[in-house]
Amino acid sequence: MTNLTLTIFLLCVCRSFQKEFITAYGPGLEPDKIVMPARYFFINCSLSDSTYIPQLANDVAIEINGKSTDKNNNCRVWVNKLDRKDGSFIVRYKVYNKCMDLSINIFYKGKHIKKSPFTYKGPIYPDQCDCPQKDLHRWLQEYGCPKIYDQIENDLQIYQNVDMNTVIKKILKKYHKPESTSFCHYVIKDNTIHRNCYGRHVGFNMFSDNILLFLARKVIMPDMELVINLGDWPLVHKNSEPVPIFSWCGSDDTFDIVMPTYDITESTLENMGRVTLDILSVQGSVSYAWKDRENRAIWRGRDSRLERLKLVDISRMNPDLFNVSLTNFFFFRDKEAEYGPKAPHISFFNFFDYKYQINIDGTVAAYRMPYLLAGGGMVMKQDSPYYEHFYKQLNAWEHYVPVSRDLSDLKERVLWARKNDDKAKIIANNARNFANNYLLPQHIICYHAVLFLEWSKKIKSTVTIKEDMTPIPQPDFPCECNGKEYHEEL
Ligand SMILES: *[C@@H]1O[C@H](CO)[C@@H](O)[C@H](O)[C@H]1NC(C)=O
Ligand SMILES: *[C@@H]1O[C@H](CO)[C@@H](O)[C@H](O)[C@H]1NC(C)=O
């Protein structure tokens, strides 16, 4: 072999070798079964952990197309590729109308990777189509949902044969304080949603409405009644009679049934929509790989808890270890001179210019935790009685570094991380993997679906729509279910 043929031979071998090892996986490759506002899948090009080759972003290309059901127009699909800067990509796409013959093409240097194109006869529905499947158990299985979650089992175990008529009376008597609490009583009957809300500040019911409407468009929900707390604080203290109230934040001293926060639920339902902060975009928006990040701890936030002021003190004494500022004064306005001036907001994505991120409670759990875990940094989490639906699955020193409630060991923890960079990096990787395994839109939707199914089994009273309830209609979106009209066209 001449030198030239040898070079060409090797180039070909390497190229095909690499192409063979590119894998694509994720719920977005089952668009017929898993309907989401934005579907997503992953492409992994790397043979080892965190190989970053900037050129890859040019070599990997995605094309998604299909036919629309009205005549021979193409269906409208918007595709977005996020570079995770570790040799892997996230691909998100949004389907705007019903698609037939969808095809997902993944190219490496202009050639299909193995198994590409992925093709689907259809119909592929956009999220807004009101085309519920009949069988919830089958839907849960196809959607890739687990059968049960420990947190759900734990939260619901005290309830059996619940008579909702009695429960509602008790809840109204004890918890209806218009000045301080706001909640909604929902009834789901024959897959339609109705509610009655109580309290001064009920605007947040749009979040609970949206997830219930979302589910009812996908699958026929069991009849049920439930009460959803619209405030941050859990309500049912352990020294009082347990009544079932669903809350976004749980705590060690309350009975509230915890559900994913309105924040992560909205980022799930608005993915690629008006919300920019979600677990997928965090991963595509970091600027640096671990080794290039600054080895200090960063934090920004408002003054909603005394420890947050203490954090400023600690940071001022150790500017070489921290970059911390308050962005707003509301709870401790009188301390503004001492702890200010308030700093301008920085983009959440810039948190990940640093290796370590601090998570301190606000009024309750800080709802930024899912996004911090996803950012590829090492999260330092303050001990707290408050928790979100997934906290019990997290382990200290595996997914995050624990910090005492009074922050007395915070500085020590940063010094530890600096000395043990390899261990800190492993914790950071574990955190990101956790976010990808448990906190993506598919998982947040599953958690709600399993929670509502399990709850419906606990109710023994007959579910009826109450006279004064407001119906919550599905959005008006033209969409024929079952692809019937498509076959007629043929
Ligand atoms: C990509 O695959 C390799 C080999 O299986 C694995 O070591 C690596 O962790 C994967 N990367 C990502 C980001 O999943
Ligand atoms: C703290 O972080 C901000 C945002 O990244 C940066 O602009 C500022 O210069 C940093 N301050 C210090 C003292 O490092």
Furnish the topology, listing elements before pairings:
Blueprint: H1 3-20, E1 23-25, E2 39-44, H2 56-59, E3 60-68, E4 77-83, E5 88-95, E6 99-108, E7 111-112, E8 118-120, H3 136-142, H4 150-156, H5 164-175, E9 183-189, E10 192-198, H6 205-218, E11 224-229, E12 246-247, E13 250-251, E14 257-258, H7 262-269, H8 279-285, E15 294-302, H9 306-317, E16 322-328, H10 336-339, E17 354-359, H11 369-374, E18 378-382, E19 386-387, E20 401-403, H12 410-419, H13 421-438, H14 441-456, E21 470-472, H15 484-489
The structure holds 2-acetamido-2-deoxy-beta-D-glucopyranose (2 copies).
Describe the structure in your own words.
With 490 residues, the protein is of the alpha/beta class. The protein has 2 domains: 20-129, Immunoglobulin-like (Sandwich), CATH 2.60.40; 131-473, Glycogen Phosphorylase B (Rossmann fold, 3-Layer(aba) Sandwich). It contains 15 helices and 21 strands. The protein has helices at 3-20, 56-59, 136-142, 150-156, 164-175, 205-218, 262-269, 279-285, 306-317, 336-339, 369-374, 410-419, 421-438, 441-456, 484-489; strands spanning 23-25, 39-44, 60-68, 77-83, 88-95, 99-108, 111-112, 118-120, 183-189, 192-198, 224-229, 246-247, 250-251, 257-258, 294-302, 322-328, 354-359, 378-382, 386-387, 401-403, 470-472. The strands form 6 sheets. It has a 5-stranded parallel β-sheet. It has a 4-stranded antiparallel β-sheet with strand order 1-2-5-4, covered by helices on one side. Strands 3, 6, 7 and 8 form a 4-stranded antiparallel β-sheet that branches. Strand 4 (77-83) and strand 5 form a beta hairpin. The model is unreliable at 483-490 (pLDDT under 50). The structure holds 2-acetamido-2-deoxy-beta-D-glucopyranose (2 copies). Residues 323, 346, 350, 353 line the site of one 2-acetamido-2-deoxy-beta-D-glucopyranose.
